[in-house]
């Protein structure tokens, strides 16, 4: 009886084990990359984010290397960019374009699972996931910056001064050069030319019945900017469609940051979300927002000029994953957020100057200025600044471009 009972128990156990394997236990997992909304459901402190990828590489039957990253296909912007290889984008965690972890892999029903807690140079986090060969559900939780000196507070664009050359403006523009002032009518040369450009209402809106300046677009369209303890920059803006207007928030995780020092951060933008906003803002909206500049070819899209535009994309692409260093200076109830000389000067010299040197581009700019009744009075000064730009850049001692904010609450 004892042998029979033992044999029976072993047989039953084997049968049950076999049934469990057939019905519930996942097969050994293979290397897979999960991306897109149909394959990957990814959350960040409880909110969904998009445009990221997760690669799982088995290192043993019950362990894996898991990598979190993003890649951007510029062909999504235009067919003309299809030949450019995918470029790295910002990672899931700000400051980590590629986050790779080694984890034990378990089983929960028909899913493989893993969980992990860790830290990067900038923050601490936990992550857990369950996955099959086809889909993954992944959650980053308890994400928190190690340096919380920028966290907290909500900011809105600084109100515009009636004087277009005033320092009190939503746009932060400082441009100092050793070159003597050579622009007719402008005491501060290129700095004044830029301030006139952003403060002059030349953008047609409301079916061409009115015009707005870039300053007005920012002042009216950008409502608030926040800085959170988990490295996000939530932005609310005015969305108008079909005659109705409502303030709404950009997709979660569109903008991220990490502190670099007491007065500096590194800024990241998610291209997937930005493209979605461009496409959304091109449909039945007032004020009229210009069409997606990447979607169709225009006068500027021919020959050498278009090739230069593509080269600019290639030059700027690496900055998506590595982020842009920016000054973030808070004084009382004001905040200045801008890129400085070290970042902007080589960027302008390597990308913008070759583009502006093209005769076709100069003709486009001159036609636009002279045929716009708001800009035409400044045509001589603006074109003088255009032509002098290479020399101005060589003599530039200080350059700051960004936005000025005041506390909203």
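Q: What amino acid sequence fits the structure above?
A:
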């Amino acid at each position: 009886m004892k042998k029979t009972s033992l044999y029976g128990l072993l047989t039953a156990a084997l049968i049950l084990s076999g049934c469990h394997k057939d019905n519930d236990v996942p097969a050994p997992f293979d290397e897979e990359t999960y991306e897109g909304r149909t394959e990957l459901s990814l959350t960040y402190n409880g909110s969904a984010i998009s445009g990221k990828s997760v690669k799982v590489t088995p290192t043993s039957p019950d362990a894996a290397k898991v990598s979190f990253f993003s890649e951007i296909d510029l062909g999504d912007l235009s067919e003309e960019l299809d030949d450019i290889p995918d470029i790295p984008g910002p990672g899931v965690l700000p400051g980590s374009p590629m986050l790779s972890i080694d984890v034990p892999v378990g089983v929960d029903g028909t899913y493989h699972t893993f969980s992990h807690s860790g830290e990067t140079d900038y923050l601490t986090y936990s992550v857990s996931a369950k996955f099959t060969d086809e889909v993954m559900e992944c959650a980053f939780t308890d994400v928190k910056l190690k340096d919380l000196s920028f966290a907290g507070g909500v900011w809105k664009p600084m109100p515009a001064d009636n004087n277009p050359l005033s320092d009190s403006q939503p746009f932060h523009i400082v441009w100092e050069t050793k070159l003597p002032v050579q622009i007719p009518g402008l005491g501060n040369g290129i700095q004044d030319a830029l301030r006139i450009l952003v403060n002059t209402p030349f953008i047609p809106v409301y079916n061409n019945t009115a015009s707005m300046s870039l300053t007005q677009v920012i002042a009216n369209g950008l409502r608030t900017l926040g800085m959170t303890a988990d490295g996000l920059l939530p932005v609310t803006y005015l969305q108008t469609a079909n005659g109705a207007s409502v303030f709404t928030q950009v997709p979660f995780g569109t903008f991220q940051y990490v502190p670099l020092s007491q007065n500096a951060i590194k800024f990241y933008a998610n291209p997937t979300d930005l493209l979605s906003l461009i496409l959304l803002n091109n449909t039945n909206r007032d004020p009229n927002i210009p069409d997606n500049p990447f979607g169709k070819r225009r006068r500027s899209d021919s020959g050498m000029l278009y090739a230069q535009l593509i080269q600019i994309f290639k030059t700027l692409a690496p900055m998506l994953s590595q982020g842009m260093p920016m000054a973030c200076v808070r004084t009382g109830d004001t905040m200045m957020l801008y890129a400085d000389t070290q970042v902007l000067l080589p960027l302008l010299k390597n990308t913008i100057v070759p583009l502006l040197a093209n005769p076709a581009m100069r003709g486009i700019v001159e036609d636009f200025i002279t045929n716009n009744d708001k800009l035409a009075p400044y045509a001589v000064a603006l074109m003088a600044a255009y032509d002098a730009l290479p020399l101005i850049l060589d003599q530039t001692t200080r350059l700051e471009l960004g936005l000025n904010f005041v506390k909203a609450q």
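Q: And what stands out in the fold?
A: DSSP finds ten helices and 24 strands in the chain.
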